[in-house]
Design brief:
Blueprint (H helix, E strand, L loop, with lengths): L4 H26 L3 H20 L5 H24 L3 E3 L11 H18 L3 H26 L2 E3 L7 H30 L1
Antiparallel strand pairs: 1-2
Length: about 190
């Protein structure tokens, strides 16, 4: 059934009403709450740790890897939230649905450190598996306990293969990108 102009207009109006409701809820419930301060602190601390700990000799590589991780994490988080598998009770800003502090700084920092300090696939796989387990069974339950994260149709262990996949797929992509770059540089000569 084709969407009529009137139907599209109503959908846009509905979206605007949801946006206004989200902003209102944020202004009157989330902004400056304890959870808001926790998320802001996590965001700032992890942002500055990334700047401090990223290998400056490989900054382009670290930034590209981190950007890949951020894309994966935001897409996965957005899909889960849109499917009503979970939701967040607080965020730093109201107009960006995924939980900014985790999606843009905490997880990318952890993945970047693993990528940076593991040179071989076996050690990378082990470190990524450990990080995946820690995030699923320590950090996610902690965020549930403090009330930032609410699981609806989700269990922590469901994320285990996803966290692992994000790290492995990103490293695989990075290896391919740098192999192609090395090949192009060699051809130039």
């Amino acid at each position: 059934m084709p969407i009529s102009a009137a139907g599209l207009e109503q959908a846009v109006q509905d979206q605007w009403q949801l946006t206004l409701a989200r902003i209102d809820e944020w202004l009157h419930g989330s902004l400056f709450s304890l959870n808001w301060w926790v998320l802001l602190a996590l965001f700032l601390i992890n942002f500055f740790l990334w700047i401090k700990l990223a290998d400056k000799r490989r900054l382009n590589e670290m930034a590209l890897y981190t950007a890949l991780i951020i894309i994966w994490v935001i897409v996965m988080d957005e899909l889960g939230e849109e499917a009503s598998l979970w939701y967040y009770t607080a965020d730093i800003i109201p107009l960006f649905p995924p939980i900014t502090a985790i999606d843009i700084t905490c997880l990318p920092l952890l993945y970047m450190l693993i990528y940076q300090y593991t040179k071989r696939w076996p050690s990378f796989l082990i470190a990524t598996a450990v990080m995946s387990v820690a995030f699923c069974f320590v950090f996610e339950p902690m965020f549930v306990w403090i009330g930032i994260y609410k699981m609806l149709a989700w269990k922590s262990w469901y994320g285990l293969p996803l966290y692992f996949f994000i790290g492995v797929a990103s490293r695989f992509i990075m290896r391919r990108v740098f192999a192609l770059s090395d090949k192009a540089q060699a051809a130039k000569g």
